[in-house]
């Protein structure tokens, strides 16, 4: 078994050398989700492990771009660790990724991680990385082997001030969201064509409850929330309770839309930079991930997929 594990680790570790000059298009002021799974191995046992991190790229120095981990978790078997302090870098414009720092268990003890990823393959909207590294708990040291997907959210692209648009974004609550009805979702003819067009045929999140589930905006952006459902909704912000199926979120008091009647809309403004999870406390399967970037007079939010040929 040890021989098989070593061979698998070598395959993942060396896979970046077979990219054939392909590299991820990483730049400043982008939001990413890093999602993947694999194994954590010691001499005595093998445990499954998952990683799910929200990242935002920062300043570029040479071919290196630092990033911040805004939210997320790492699992080790049945135990979940939330991020405490993680430092990360995209190296050589995204060919490699390095993540180091601390994560914290539900019981409060600290665990450190050290991961190094190599680009394996990429598409127009996501890249696959093979990660190796270590998870060091107070009791043991695990070698990790991950296969992950790094997907981009909206990219912030420099434009001239003359073409700068209003700092607003319209978000629709889709018909049938309150009942999780697949039929109602498909028949939601009232949903505007521009919101439907944001869904790719290859998108894993086909059953959406909002016109967009993941957004990236500047601080001070006003979100116009339109209720196309047949019942009232209330959108608030909070932190996610990982592993809790019945109470997925805990309100943090930053955002509260108040009641939005069917057919009506309401405005909320995201003033502070950071990471937001927006949800309806009465229908907690309805959630949005929002990244808020530092303000800039020369930035305009665009769809990153449209910037590729």
Q: Main traits of this protein?
A:
Porin; Immunoglobulin-like; 2 domains; mainly beta; 3 helices; 309 residues; eight-stranded antiparallel β-barrel; 55% strand; disordered N terminus; globular; disordered C terminus
- Name the CATH superfamily classification of the largest domain: Photosystem II, cytochrome c-550 precursor
What's the CATH first level of the largest domain?
A: Mainly Beta
Low-confidence parts lasting 5 or more residues at pLDDT below 50?
3-24, 155-165, 182-206, 295-309
- CATH-level-2 architecture of the largest domain: Beta Barrel
SSE run: HEEEEEEEEEHHEEEEEEEE
How many beta-strand runs?
A: 17
Rounded to the nearest angstrom, the radius of gyration is 20 Å
Tally of structural domains: 2
Helix content: under 10%
Q: Briefly note the CATH topology name of the largest domain.
A: Porin
Alpha carbon gap, first and last residue? 44 Å
Give me the number of helical elements. Answer: 3
Structural class based on helices, strands and sheet pairing? mainly beta
Characterize the largest beta sheet: strand count, sense, and whether it forms a barrel: 8 strands, antiparallel, barrel
**What kind of oligomer do you see?**
single chain
Strand order of the largest sheet: 1-2-3-4-5-6-7-8
Mean pLDDT: 75
> Into which percentage range does the β-strand content fall?
over 45%
Shape: globular
